[in-house]
Every structure is written in structure tokens, then in C-alpha cells.
Amino acid sequence: MKFKATQIAEILNGDILGNPDVEVDKLSKIEEAESGSLTFLANLKYTPFIYKTKASICIVSHDFEPLQKIETTLIKVEEPYEAFSKLLEYYNQVKLRKSGIEQPSYIDESVQYGEDIYVGAFAYIGNNVKIGDRVKIYPNAYIGDNVTLGDDVIIFAGSKIYSESILGNNVVIHGGAIIGADGFGFAPSENGTYKKVPQIGNVIIENNVDVGAGTTVDRATLGSTIIREGVKLDNQIQIAHNVEIGKHTVIAAQTGIAGSTKIGEHCVIGGQVGIVGHIQIGNRVKIQAQSGIGRNIKDDEVLQGSPAIGYSDYNKSYVHFKNLPELVKKINDLENNFQHNE
Predict the structure, then answer these.
(1) What does the pLDDT read at residue 148?
(2) Residue at which a domain ends, from 95, 122, 149
(3) pLDDT given for residue 15 in this prediction
(4) Are 137 and 161 in contact (CB under 8 A)?
(5) Do 185 and 213 fall within a single domain?
(6) How far apart are CA 342 and CA 240, in angstroms?
(7) Which of 61, 130, 256, 323 has its C-alpha lying 20 to 30 A from 154's C-alpha?
(8) 236 is in which domain, residue-wise?
(9) Per the structure, how many domains does the chain have?
(10) What is the pTM of this model?
(11) What gap in Å lies between CA 58 and CA 61, rounded to an integer?
(12) What is the pLDDT of residue 341?
């Protein structure tokens, strides 16, 4: 897919300096760009590359004035990085612009769906499913019975949306994610075996949520597991039954959250964090990677370690952790000298 400099300048409301008819068909870093590439210059330390880049078009600030001869066509904008991000979003929308129903696929006759939807080959859509406008369901996706999908939802290839799940508008579920699998509910028996506790709740995902590849969000035992508006979940995260995650919280990969824990709004949780069940985590909490959380957390706390302690306390303690061998040696030397002098 090719774009002319004039088309890009129109999208970005930018000014062209150079050939308005030059075309690009790929996006590249300024130091790696080849002919036919579009790139950008936002960080001034990369300025030397603009004089030798092979990119056909480069987005720059309105303030940029070349000090040497320049080969690439410039498009001048207010904020180059923001403009490039806008262009990436536009490019992604064009790339994902699909519609129609591919065959073979299965759509139950009871399904209600809106306008301009896309269903890829080998997708399965069960009984009484409701699908909004401009929804895209990619190949090999599974949509269980009684699922509701809002407008502009994207379900990427291989994802599974189990029965009764409710997804709001502009939700993105990446490949291999599973929404609504049974929670980990087993009751021990007297003979040492475990009896499964039926998981009859569901999952509710509100508007503008992104769920990464391979992430699992379990259905509630009773009631709902809830992912609030604007939450962003990375790849390979485990969200257990009856968890609730507050608005605009972001969670990095390989984090696990045990059942019935409630996480507040605008939290930032690093990778490989482990959080026990049945606790409350406040708003705007920051948890560093590989921390273990085993207690209730108040608003605005910043934590690190396992079990996690205050971030500044952890950093102070770490100074001593790494010096423990030297400290032990000093203590032993003091003891030896004391005993020698007795």
C-alpha cells in the first residue's frame, strides 16, 4: 500500500519541503530507513541521520532547518512524534480494514449483528450472540453462547470468548487470549481428592480495553470478573475469578492476580508480579516487576520486593543486601578480636 507525500501531509496537516509526489510503502527508523520508507525525527540526538538517511519522506518539526544538503522530502508538523503515532494508527486502521463473512465459518441463525462486520474463516459464533457495528472476528476465533460484543470490537485469530461474556465498545482481544474460562475452584474432599466447584458467573470487559496475546481472564464463581474502562493488559497475564481491575490500570506480562482481589484505578503493575487473593489495592498504586503482594495496599503506594515493601525502603535495604558478605566478615572479625583480647 503506497502513500504520496501529499496524502500524508493532508492527514497530518503538515507542510511539504521537497517532492510532493514521492511515494512510500513502509515505516522505518531514521537510521535504518531505505528508499520507499517513511520515518520521523523527534529526538535531536538523531539529527545527524537525517543528512544520510535513505528514507523517501521524513516527518520533522516546523522549527527544523537543514544545515546541510538533504535528499529526503520533509513534512513539517507541530509535534513529529505525535504525528508519527497518528500515522501509525491510521496505517493500522487501513491494514485491518476488512469486512464480509469468509467461508467456511459458522454463525448460528440466532446471532444478531450490526453493520460492516468481518468474520474470518473457521470462526465459530454460538447461540444468541449479539455483535455490534464494525466488529472484526478473525480466523479460528471462538465466540460462545450468549456473548455480547459492542461496537468496533476486534477479536484476533485464535482467541476464545466463552459463554455469557460481555465486551464493551473498542475492546481488542489479541491472539490466543481466553476470556471466561472457569475460575480455579476446587473443594478438598475427606479422601484427599478435589471436587470441582461450578463456575457460573461471567466476565465483563468495559469500553476501550486491550487484552494481550495469551492472557486469560477467568469467569466468576458467582457474579462477574470485571475489567473496567481503559484497562491495558499485556501478554500472558492471569486474572482469576471475581477479580476487579479499576479504570485505566495497566499491567505488564506474566503477572498473576488471585481470586476476588480488587485493584483500583490508574495503577501501574510491572511484569511477573504475584498478587494474592481477597485483598484490596488502592488507586494510583505502582508495583515494581517481580514483586509479591500479600496484603491490602493503600492509595498512591509504590512497592517493590517479595513480600513487597515501600519502594524507597527497598532501595535503602538493597544497599545492605548486596553488602551482607562484607558485613558478616566485619562482624566475624570483631568477634574474633574481642575473644582474642579477653
Answers:
(1) 98
(2) 95
(3) 94
(4) no
(5) yes
(6) 62
(7) 256
(8) 101-314
(9) 2
(10) 0.81
(11) 10
(12) 67
Residues 6+ apart with CB under 8 A from 152: 132, 133, 134, 135, 169, 170
Largest CA distance in the chain: 94
CB contact set of 325 (below 8 Å; sequence gap of 6+): none
Q: Would you say 127 and 108 are in contact if contact means Cβ atoms under 8 Å apart?
A: yes
Q: What 3-state class would DSSP assign to 336? A: helix
- Write out the DSSP string of 114-134: -SS-EE-TT-EE-TT-EE-TT
User: Which parts of the chain sit beneath pLDDT 50?
Assistant: none
Q: Phi first, then psi: what are they for 39, rounded to 5°?
A: -140, -175
Indicate the SS3 state at residue 86: helix
The answer to whether residues 88 and 135 belong to one domain is no
Burial class (CB in 10 A: 0-12, 13-18, 19+), 329: exposed
Beta-carbon contacts of residue 239 (< 8 Å; ≥ 6 apart) = 215, 216, 217, 218, 225, 227, 233, 245, 257
If one counts every other C-beta atom within 10 angstroms of the C-beta of residue 325, the result is 8
The residue type of 96 is L
- Residues 164 and 288 occupy one common structural domain: yes
- The answer to whether residues 228 and 277 belong to one domain is yes
Grid cell 509504590 in the structure block, residue? 302
Give the residue numbers marked as catalytic.
Answer: 241
Same domain, 244 and 162: yes
Q: Are residues 114 and 220 in the same domain?
A: yes
For residue 281, which phi and psi values (nearest 5 degrees)? -115, 130
124 and 142 in contact (C-beta within 8 Å)? yes
Residue 325 lies in a domain: no
